[in-house]
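REVIEWER CHECKLIST
Item 1: Sequence provided? yes
Item 2: Single chain? yes
Item 3: Sequence as submitted:
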Amino acid sequence: MEKSYRLLYPMRIILVSASHEGKNNFMPAAWCFPLSFEPQIFGVAIAKKRFTYSLIHESKEFVINIPGADLIEKMNALGRISGRDCDKFREWDLTPDKSKKIGAYGIAECLVSIECKVVKETEIGDHVLFCGEAIHINKRREGKGIYQKEEELIEF
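Item 4: Structure as written out by the authors:
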């Protein structure tokens, strides 16, 4: 069967970050979307096998980081290594940015970071949908986002 979700491409690529008990991680994700205007709630779907899943599940918070086109080269490689095995901030030369309202770190090189508190967690197939209320938005600068078309990243 053809992967029907590809019919929805291109999709924006974000970096979702989370922290728990001194462990920090982030991962690229395309399945991130708004769910509610009031209150502002965003959803991000993450596979249970991912290290970031366990950090969000335990801490009940996450940050949606929107990278600019200047990070496209790093984005192509970020998903190939697990934060269980290394410090991704150090490995990829990115700067952790302490959130204003939660314990997780944003990514200083990203255009925007949206701090979210989990209001609902739902297992759906092979992923878990984390629904998070936006409690603080840190807009650093203007810029173009990164989108994924099938298996490659593209700039729009």
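Item 5: Key structural point noted by reviewer: The chain has a mean pLDDT of 88.
Item 6: Recommendation: ____
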